[in-house]
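Quick illustration, no need to memorize.
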Amino acid sequence: MTNDDDDILRYDKMVEYALRGVVRQAIEEVMDDGLPGEHHFYITFMTDFPGVDIPDYLRDRYPGEMTIVLQYQFYDLNVDKDKMSVTLSFNNVPERLVIPLAAITIFADPSVNFALQFQPLGEDGGPDFDPEDLLDDDDSGDDKGDKDKGEKTGEVVSLDKFRKKD
C-alpha cells in the first residue's frame, strides 16, 4: 500500500458531511412544522461561494460572509441534498436567497446553546455535496499537517472505561 493521499480515508470530510446533515435535517423539520418554542437559527455562509444566489447589493454589503437569522419572518424555506433557500425581508423588500449547504460556515440555535462551525470545503466540496467526494484527494486549506512532516497521531480508546460496572 502506498502512502499517498489517494489511500487516505478522509474522516475530516466524512464528519463535515455528517454534521451538514444535521443542518439539513433541522431545516427540514422547520420546513414541515415551523420553529417550535424559542428556537431560532443563525446561519453564516460564504457569499462568494459557487452557487450562492443572493442579490448583488447584499453581496456588496457583505463581501465574503453573511449571517441570516431565521426566527419570526421568513418564507418559503426549502432544503434539498445540496442547498437551502429562503425568502427574507431586507428593508421591507422580500429577497430569495439560495445557499449551498457547503457554503455554510456556522449554524447555531442560541435558544438551546447549540452551534456547529464548519471548515470551508472550497469549490471542490460542492455546491453538489456528493458523499463519494469524501474520499477524493483535495486540499481543504488546512496546513496543520505540514508541521508534523509525516508523524502520525492518534489514540485508541477502549470503551470499557466508559461502561457501567456491575
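The beta strands are 41-46, 65-70, 74-79, 83-90, 93-100, 104-109, 114-117.
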